[in-house]
Amino acid sequence: MRRSLLVLFIALALACGVMALIGGSHAVVVSLEILLPLGLLALLIAQAVDSGRLRLGTLRHRFQLGLALALGQLLAAVAIGAAVMFVSPHDAWATIGILLFAALIAAQAAQVLLRGVLADVRAIRDGLQAVEQGERDVQINAESSSELAELAGAANRMIEALCSEERSRDAAEATRRQVIAAVSHDLRTPLTSLRLLTEALDDELVDPETARRYVQTMGVNVRALGTLIDDLFELSRLNAGDFAWSTEAVPLAEFVHETVKAMRAQADAQGVIVNAQIAADLAPVRANPEKLERVLANLLQNAIHHTPPDGSVLISAQRSNGNLEIEVADTGDGIAAADRPRVFEPFYRGGSEAARTRAGSGLGLAIARAIVEAHGGRIWLADAPQGTCVKLALPVAE
Per DSSP, which regions of the chain are E strands? Predict the structure, then answer.
């Protein structure tokens, strides 16, 4: 309201200045008596609309009221001025006629100018209503003014953010359902076996030698269940960021050779040759030794399991852009192109066991990815002329 009063005083000062030049002090007093009440009334009406005491439902009605206040003041000022200052009735009516003409033209021009604004407002309203009703392929366009264009742009960005969030939520929900289904399946198999073996032992239907074999099988199933539960717990903690391990400079050549040595028995059992080519002077990697061993063991186990007899697995490393890139490559059948984007998802199995973890808990590659990312690195499938090539990058220990 204070700004409106300031504008009123400035307008009065300008009008009185003009009247002082052409009519002296008497004209100034008369002008104040005419213009001050008209200006105050117009501003009070506008203030009432703005505060909500006088309700106008649409933008069009507000615009029409503003136009009516402006033209009404002109007509009232002319009529009162003609009566008070003894202006010729002929001149007064001529002025009123001109004002009426200008008012009609101004009203039509205002309607034309307002048409695009109202169309853009309706477009924004309809677009947001469509989003409310569940539509997401919505693009709002507004070109009548820069302000409405900015508003439409903000609405489009909001819709895109909403779509992105919903896609992420749906993907997470689909992954959750897949994980639950996979866990249920992997739990059901050993539990069913344990139930049948237990029932056979309870019924005393087997001889002592068979009973011992059943007990051994039960031990295998129990260990499989334990491994699955431990891996699930570890993966959930890694994904939640609930870990606190220390890192150190790990000399990669010696470390890799020790890991390969530990996997040698499994490789020999399957007739797979495992080699490591790591330069002795290669810079150490910044990592937690136990977790890095877990990652390399998972990758080597997968590679050995999916490499045919007389095949080979090669683990190598090189420095690249401040990181150390470790590569595990095998001469197996490789992974189908359609399955490659999802091989690091928990329990995912595409064609030819794309997740490549059936021998373990089904979480090996998912845990490997989580550990590598927790170290500030990344892991991915690289192109290879034959078989599968997995690469991981970890920071160098300076």
Answer: 248-250, 273-277, 285-287, 312-320, 323-330, 378-382, 389-395
